């Protein structure tokens, strides 16, 4: 959606629950401690790195590319 960057991060954080919410609180503290500004790109990068690593994404992509429907 066409939301300002600050709202994207705020909404993304709002939807986190339980373990992921605790992970983000700690990760955000670390990023702040390093002086990093948390943009949407930063949020997505650290989130995917932790919860959906590259090798899993590659595996899912391969599975998707090999999908077949019936005899097709």
Compose a concise summary of this entry.
With about 70 residues, the protein is mostly helical. The protein is built from 4 helices and no strands.
Q: What report would you give on this structure?
A:
There is one protein chain. The chain is mainly α and 72 residues long. Helix content is 69%, strand content 0%. It contains 4 helices and no strands. The chain is elongated.
Oligomer: single chain
> Beta-sheet strand percentage?
under 5%
Structural class: mainly alpha
Beta-strand segment tally: 0
Q: For the residues shown, what is the average pLDDT?
A: 89
Radius of gyration: 16 Å
> Number of helical segments?
4
Based on CA inertia axes, which overall geometry fits?
A: elongated
Report on the biggest sheet: none
Helix content: 55-70%
| Secondary-structure element series | HHHH
Report the span from N to C terminus.
35 Å
Runs in which pLDDT lies below 50 for 5 or more consecutive residues are none
